[in-house]
Amino acid sequence: MPENDALAFVYTTLPDEAAASAMARALIEARLAACCNILPPMRSVYRWGGAIENQRETAMLIKTRRDMVDRVIDAARPLHPYATPCFLTLGIEAANAPYLAWALAETAD
Question: 7-106 adopts what CATH topology?
Fold first, then answer.
C-alpha cells in the first residue's frame, strides 16, 4: 500500500448533523477534503467551565492530504460553532492504491 504519509484524517466533533454537513460540503467544494464521514450522534462527557457536561455531538472524519491539514483546519475553524473546537490529526498508516489515487485527485490544487 503506497505513500503511507500521503493522507490524514482530521477528526472533529460538532453539535449536530446539520453543522457537520455544512462544514463537510464547504471542505469538499474547496477541494480540501476528498471525503468527510459524518458519524451518528454520540454522547460526550467532559469538563467545561468548571462543570461536567454530558452532551450529544456528531463526530466527523475529514479525509485529506497530509500536507493540507493546516489548510483544512484554517478553513473549518470559522465554520465551527464551538468556541474551542476539537481538531485532531490522525495519520493513515496505509491506503489501497485505487483509493489513494482517487483521494489525491480529489484534493489536487
Answer: Alpha-Beta Plaits (3.30.70)
